TrEMBL record:
Signal peptide: none annotated. SMART domains: EMP24_GP25L (SM01190). This is TMD11 protein. It holds the Pfam family EMP24_GP25L. The lineage of its organism: Eukaryota, Metazoa, Chordata, Craniata, Vertebrata. The keyword Membrane applies.
Amino acid sequence: FHSGEREEKCIIEDVPSDTLVIGNYKVQRWDIHKRDFLESAPGLGMFVTVTTPHADVLLSKLYGPQGTFSFTSEISGEHVICLESNSTRFVALAGSKLRIHLDIRVGEHFLDEAAIQAKDKVDEINLRLEHLIEQIHHVSKEQNYEREREEKFRKTSEETNSNILWWAIVQTLILISIGIWQMKSLRDFFISKKLV
């Protein structure tokens, strides 16, 4: 995505509890003379802030023009990941465009390929099995989290339907009572004027 030099961009990521989140990013600065983005942005870093669904700061750190950040979620919900350049230019002069490449991986545990190649085949199989078991645990956590969200959504829907039903009943009773009152008032009016 593109961003201004002093502009903060935020991404919302829905994450289950106790889940590892890894983010890789790279910043490129616009070069007016070449009319293209430079391959790297020396001297420019990114300030990464991660907040929990309860607005608690989970991560707040300054990184370089290219880097990796990671955090483990404490609670499930929508975590906000914000990136802002650490440009020291004045806001009026900081008009340069930035291109930010961002890759966020939720719940992935990467295999160390160098360690796998260095060990014999039995160790390699053990490592791959451990990796698969971690992936199974992650899928199980993800399913439990989706069940919790579905249950919360169902409760909200049932409460809304109940409120709508009661509101409809109250409206009907009000309309019926107003109709009866109008009929009684008209009948009394006609009787008092001796029209009936």
